[in-house]
Write a structure and sequence with these properties.
It is built from 1 helix and 10 strands. It is mainly beta and 188 residues long. The longest helix is centred in the N-terminal third of the chain and has 24 residues.
Length: 188
């Protein structure tokens, strides 16, 4: 009985040594742990579109972009050619178009980079409005936008230019040019 146990232990030991030797001869394939770079895209979308409704189920905001990329480290969303529409009960929607945009701070701030165009169609009582500027910070939740760059506000046939702009899309609508304001107005 003891001889039988010794034989089993010797065979188990030889099997362990043979396994170790075989492992040393064959190339070891180790699974590499997926390591994300510090600022890397964790998901993206082409033809991105997002709609937000108010408490009554009416369309409040719409965001479209040619491409959207979400970054895992800071939660920012990078948009290529973004278009943002702010809807209002009584007025045509405001449309903001830019070359690029970055949505950060949990969606509370949208930074628009490059050329930015802000427009609204004419109403029964007012003319169409178009604002050309760049580098705009938008606060979507409060319907507010601002820039420190030069801006051109046109409501044909009138044109006003200035440096620095503040815009509130909510009722009442307010557009403020901050510095070096010049205007060309035509009276009918």
């Amino acid at each position: 009985m003891i001889e039988r146990n010794v034989i089993i232990y010797v065979l188990a030991g030889l099997l362990a040594i043979a396994s170790w030797w075989w492992l040393q001869l064959s190339p070891v394939v180790l699974e590499k742990e997926a390591v994300l770079e510090k600022h890397s895209v964790d998901y993206y979308s082409s033809g991105y579109q997002k709609r937000e409704m108010d408490a009554l189920g009416l369309l409040k905001r719409e965001v479209r972009a040619v491409k959207m990329q979400h970054y895992s480290d800071d939660g920012s969303v990078h948009l290529q050619a973004p278009e943002i529409r702010f809807f209002n009960d009584k007025l045509p929607p405001w449309l903001i178009q830019a070359e690029r945009g970055v949505l950060s701070n949990g969606g509370k701030e949208l930074w628009l980079h490059g050329a930015v165009l802000v427009s609204r169609a004419a109403t029964k009582s007012g003319r169409a409005i178009m604002i050309k500027t760049s580098e705009v910070r938008v606060q979507p939740e409060t319907s507010y936008a601002e820039t420190a760059q030069s801006a051109e506000l046109s409501s044909p046939p009138n044109v006003t230019t200035g440096v620095g702009l503040q815009l509130s899309f909510a009722d009442p609508i307010r557009i403020t040019l901050l510095n070096k304001v010049r205007g060309k107005y035509e009276i009918n």
